[in-house]
Design goal:
Strand content of chain B: 15-25%
Radius of gyration of chain B: 14 Å
Radius of gyration of chain A: 12 Å
Largest sheet of chain A: 5 strands, parallel
CATH class of chain B: Alpha Beta
CATH architecture of chain A: 3-Layer(aba) Sandwich
Number of domains of chain A: 1
Strand order of the largest sheet of chain A: 4-3-2-1-5
Number of strands of chain B: 5
Order of helices and strands of chain B: EHEHEHHEHE
Shape of chain B: globular
Shape of chain A: globular
CATH class of chain A: Alpha Beta
Largest sheet of chain B: 5 strands, parallel
CATH superfamily of chain A: DsrEFH-like
Oligomer: heterodimer
Low-confidence stretches of chain B: none
Number of helices of chain B: 5
Order of helices and strands of chain A: EHEHHEHEHE
CATH architecture of chain B: 3-Layer(aba) Sandwich
Helix content of chain B: 25-40%
Low-confidence stretches of chain A: none
Number of strands of chain A: 5
CATH topology of chain B: Hypothetical Protein Ychn, Chain: A
CATH topology of chain A: Hypothetical Protein Ychn, Chain: A
Number of helices of chain A: 5
Mean pLDDT of chain A: 97
Distance between the termini of chain A: 22 Å
Structural class of chain B: alpha/beta
Strand order of the largest sheet of chain B: 4-3-2-1-5
Number of domains of chain B: 1
Structural class of chain A: alpha/beta
Chain lengths: 101, 130
């Protein structure tokens, strides 16, 4: 049972991501959408990579939201970019999703 | 796969609705079925027939209308959340002795039972937070 965690709040509200990580299990995935796209910046994601790595969590970010914020070319190399069809695909390959907001 | 969506954020104030709209279009493009979209909390404002955004902005209400017409998607608005925010259909306007109603005919007001039903009949339920 893998869960797709969908986070939409910016790093300015760290408690949302904190809660998400506390409820994540090994092998889950994390999708950054809307203002959470800012987590994809290297300086920001580096603050939580040790916890993400320990849980072997794959990180994805929604392309449209990265582009809208002008950061699509600045994100950390470990983060995979997906468009809306990729978002749909992620919801098919994970049998559950949790939204954190 | 059968999908249902829960939308919680107000249109134009949050990105919730536009994200959900784009997701819905991608679902349909990929051959999935949308069983129901459930509008809860401030997302009930999606159902107002009276909203008129400027011409250079996305007309969210018209976007839902198009999806309703082309794919017959069930668009359900939580009745309790809607009535207290001033989104009323004819029945509710009469019941509460209001002079007019404003619910777009693409939507219907109903109870939380419709959300329970959606979770029962869908392979996936995706929530779009405010």
């Amino acid at each position: 049972m893998k869960t797709l965690h969908i986070v939409n709040k910016s790093p300015e509200k760290p408690s949302i991501m904190e809660r998400c990580l506390n409820f994540s299990s090994k092998g889950d995935s994390l999708l950054l959408i809307e203002d959470a796209a800012y987590f994809a910046l290297p300086s920001t994601i580096s603050k939580i990579t040790s916890r993400l790595d320990a849980l072997q969590i794959k990180i994805y970010a929604l392309e449209e939201d990265l582009v809208a914020r002008g950061i699509n070319k600045k994100i950390h190399g470990s983060i995979q970019i997906v468009n809306y069809e990729g978002f749909v695909e992620l919801t098919t390959t994970h049998n559950k999703s949790s939204s954190w907001y | 796969m059968n999908y249902s969506l829960v939308i919680l954020g107000a249109p134009y104030s949050t990105q919730s609705t536009t994200t959900a709209l784009n997701f819905t279009k991608a679902l349909l493009k990929n051959g999935h079925n949308v069983y129901r979209v459930f509008f809860y909390h401030d997302a009930v404002h999606n159902g107002s027939e009276l909203s008129r955004p400027p011409q250079d902005e996305l007309d969210i209400s018209t976007e839902w209308k198009k999806l309703k017409n082309e794919h017959d998607i069930d668009l359900v608005i939580c009745i309790a959340a809607a009535v207290k925010r001033g989104v009323l259909d004819n029945n509710e306007a009469l019941r509460h002795e209001k002079k007019s109603s404003n619910l777009s005919n693409s939507f219907e007001l109903s109870g939380l039972g419709q959300l329970v039903d959606a979770t029962e009949h869908s392979d996936r339920v995706i929530t779009f937070g405010p």
